[in-house]
Amino acid sequence: MHPMLNIAVRAARRAGTIISRASNRLHDVKVDRKGHHDYVSQVDRDAEAAIIETLLGAYPDHAILAEESGSHGRSEFEWIIDPLDGTLNFLHGYPQFAISIALRVRGRLDQGLVYDPVRDELFTASRGAGAQLNGHRIRVARCQHLDRALLATGFPVRRAEQLADYLPSFSAMLSQCADVRRAGAAALDLAHVACGRLDGFWEFGLKAWDIAAGALLVQESGGLVGDPRGGETHLDCGHVVAANPKLFRQVLAVLAQHKTPMARTATAG
Fold first, then answer.
1. DSSP per residue, the chain
2. 149 neighbors 199 (Cβ within 8 angstroms)
């Protein structure tokens, strides 16, 4: 395992311990509301602090981009951290949440992991070296036809204009694929695409920390990741599509028939 990825694994497991212990006393967890349908708990903050402390303890000159504490430092090495993707699930005791840590080097994703503390599943990837689940190589699913595909998505509930754009494309996708799941943790959805449990995933309105590690997992397991136009702006714009190469094109074709946030941006520009 790459030395920097090994440190990230140590950080993720430390955060996982904090999250797992808190899951036994959810009634005591302090929760604040950041915005519409957007919550943060003390567990998010404690897990993030543990991750950052571990990473900077090993690499004090590296930069940080984290969901709760924002951006710290300037470096060609930047850690992108979501300490608890799926906070609302966690707060309800719904077992679908994960820790996501990625390393971007000179603007390119280089290392990534998604850790599911409920199932003790560790998804890891290093650029050019493939992706693994608990040490075993993983590949994207072989499904070649959208009408046989199990897809996952997420609803952009925090922004009404994106939800209005999203719903027609969701209806069209649901009518053309085998079925759609909405579990509420984008990092895990991408990890599940990477290991073949899901055939594809799309969502609008995410942040870099939701996507970064999962995107590298999909790419290193033989899949494609991009924005709804098939471009490479997904980390910046937050609109993402992921699947194996053939399904990727089919999902893009469905989205192209409907208004998306990408189209709204182009019109505004």
1. --HHHHHHHHHHHHHHHHHHHHGGGGGG--EEEEETTEEEEHHHHHHHHHHHHHHHHH-TT-EEEETTTEEE---SEEEEEEEEETHHHHHTT-S--EEEEEEEETTEEEEEEEEETTTTEEEEEETTTEEEETTEE--------GGG-EEEEE--TT-HHHHHHHHHHHHHHHHHSSEEE--S-HHHHHHHHHTTSSSEEEESS--HHHHHHHHHHHHHTT-EEE-TTS-S-HHHH--EEEE-HHHHHHHHHHHHTS--HHHHHHHH-
2. yes
pLDDT in tens, 93-145: 999 999 999 999 999 999 999 999 999 999 999 999 999 999 999 999 999 99
Residue 29 near residue 44 (C-beta atoms within 8 A): no
Q: Return the bridge partners of 198, or none.
A: none
Query: What's the mean pLDDT in 220-246?
Result: 96
Give residue 107's region: left, alpha or beta (phi > 0; psi -120 to 50). left
At the top level of CATH, the class of 3-137 is alpha beta
Residue ranges per structural domain of the chain = 3-137, 146-268
Assign residue 130 a region: left if phi > 0, alpha if psi is -120 to 50, beta otherwise? left
pLDDT band at 265 (very low <50, low <70, confident <90, very high): very low
Model pTM score: 0.93
Contact 144, 247 (CB under 8 A): yes
- What is 146-268's CATH topology? D-Maltodextrin-Binding Protein; domain 2 (3.40.190)
